[in-house]
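Table S2 (continued). Query chain:
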Amino acid sequence: MAKRYDLLSMGRSGIDLYANDIGVPFVEIQSFAAYVGGCPTNIAVGSRRLGLHTALLTAVGPDRVGDFILHFLAQEGVETRFIPRKVGHRTSAVLLGIEGPDRFPLTYYRDNYADNELNIDDVQAAPVEACRVLLISGTGFSQEPSRSATFYAAEAVRAAGGAVVLDLDFRPDQWPDLRAYAVTMRAALRLVDIVLGTEDEINAAMLSDAGQVKLKHSQVSDARVAGDVEASIVQMLALGPQVLLQKRGAEGCRVHLVQPGGAIERVDAAGFPVEVFTILGAGDAFAAGAIYGYMQGWAWERTARFANACGAIVVTKHGCANFMPTLAEVEEFIAGRGGW
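Corresponding output:
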């Protein structure tokens, strides 16, 4: 069947409150700026700004925060008509401090949150068979009923001939047992075509001992996970994905491609040096760029280079979804730094 949407992005959404006071301890913050956030939501907005026809499957509460998110998405041109309101549940929130230069403490308010209530009925009401790509995230598997709904969506998209992209999105505080994250990711990877993650997230997906995880500055978005990343990559790709994009921060991206016969080819794409304002949202901008390049049929080196540029732009900004770059902005950014 014809695909009505380039991308269906599925998972969490919320309001992001970013500290306006830069370089001060969290306890001294005086005010926050309000943005829209959540990994799949950021990717939906980023993909739409690049020109893709994008729908979002999340859930919000019957509250003003839900209104805030839906209003922003409508302005961006992201399809919102498949987003249910979950009575009795709240839209989630995140507070971010910018203590710098490498301290960005996060506090999540995700108790009784609406997007975890996505269920199989919600998936059946969404255009899963009419999307070319489904984007799912690790956090979408952290609790029921969202976990089963996410598995169901991945199965349905694959059955309809679409591709499934998994952002590992490792958030330790969202899992009652970190080993459960690893077990669940290993099950999900069998339904995935392309996987995105940092070295720590790759190790987390393959971990066997929760003691491997160390939090840096109590920042749940920057957990350090011990392990042999090269061995983890081999194990991960043996489960089914054909492509792994390893995000390497300032060093750019390493693409791992499964070749006929099972050999793994590696392609490096250089990053773009920039002055970092916050690291939050960079991975989501990267994902949007990677999905865009993939859907244009570009070679993986070009796709990863483009994705690196998207991420580099967002690390210089004060927010995530609200600051995702347009296609023209990315092209200008790359041209101003030596081109492809």
